Structure prediction request, 439 residues.
Amino acid sequence: MKKVLILGAGFVARPLVRYLLDQPDFRVEVASRTVSKAEKLIEGHPRGVAKELNLKSEEALKSEVAGSDLVISMVPYAFHPKVAELCIAHRKQMVTTSYVSDAMKKLDADARKAGIIILNELGLDPGIDHMEAMRVIHEIHAKGGKLLGFISFCGGLPAPEANTNPFGYKFSWSPTGVLLAGKNSAKYLQDGKEVFIPSEKLFESYSLRTIEGLGVFEGYPNRNSLPYLSLYGVPETKTMLRGTLRNLGWCETIRTLVRLNVLDQEEKDWTGLTFADFLRKLLGTRAKDLKKAVSERLGISPGLAILRRLEWMGLFSNEPLPLQKGSALDIIGARMTAKLAYLPGERDMIVLQHEFFASYPKAGQEKIVSTLIDFGIPGGDSSMARTVGLPAAIGTKLILEGKIKETGVHIPVNPEIYLPILAELKSLNIAFKEKREKL
Prediction:
């Protein structure tokens, strides 16, 4: 019986754990700093074990890794290289859903030498997005064609009937990552020219994207798209843009929070302060009319929707802060978690759309649009949890069954990896719909 060690028991772990427990030849151990979270995922399953584990205890972590056949690291990405080094030392396979960091890339030769695979970016975005992109790109190349352009947008959003707050957003995973995206710069290729967007301009640089059957959304560039020219094997491409999809108004909201220093990460003492005090402190003002002070700072009319969103959040109120100590980001994250939560029975929604522009020697040019729309299960798993957790679970099964034979540090861009995972996801009703048109 193969033993799978899962590090972490967070928002998206349940479908991952349950899928693996459904495999009769796997024993699944979930290790978490909070053992009650792990126990909740295992639910007393005879082949499941919940354990308490502090990642900072290297001896304890080493012991757990050494006793497993494969490690799935669902903890913050900064811990992945440390886990990977232990997997290499003990010749254990490894899976993550996170982007490959520079530190992880450096472990490629050691992983090959140890004869193991460290398979990263095996979630939704990154993950399913790569797999469907490569499926179509390889098909274009197999027909003798060239990829002229690739544009991709992905978003985790409330389903239309659950879109009930002024922010147009609800959290199906940790808010910190969502909010810190407001501090990222971006780079992409547009019609053969490199475009760089500094972080302070990111949320001014969005476009409107129409998704058939759902309406209009905001799309803004996500990090650096340029490495995907080589990762996807498409040096001929003139446009390469990967972005994030949000409901209308989101970009203005996050841009405003950035300008108000609400995403500052410096630890401070906020003892005894209210939200209004908190905002005054961030602005460096003693103004009694806080809404007016904010509108003047931003150079906008006091009647605009963005101020009503801040008011709805309670940032002008005399409510006590949820934390006495921490960063401004910690406070706003806690507030958003409380205010932008899914109610029991509400569904989330994943929207992922790829646009491919292809050219063929005899057939001319073609536009291919591949769209994944998936909804959470009321009272069950969220779509975010399913689309992040299930690819990692399926990849784990394929590795342990010997069907993925690669070694080294990888992302799912090889047919050996992505074809069986996409097929299994389709059987679980996570599937793309494709449209093609001649140009």
About this structure: The chain has a mean pLDDT of 93. The CA atoms of residues 96 and 120 lie 5 Å apart. Residues 128-250+345-382+431-438 form a domain with the Dihydrodipicolinate Reductase; domain 2 fold (CATH 3.30.360.10).
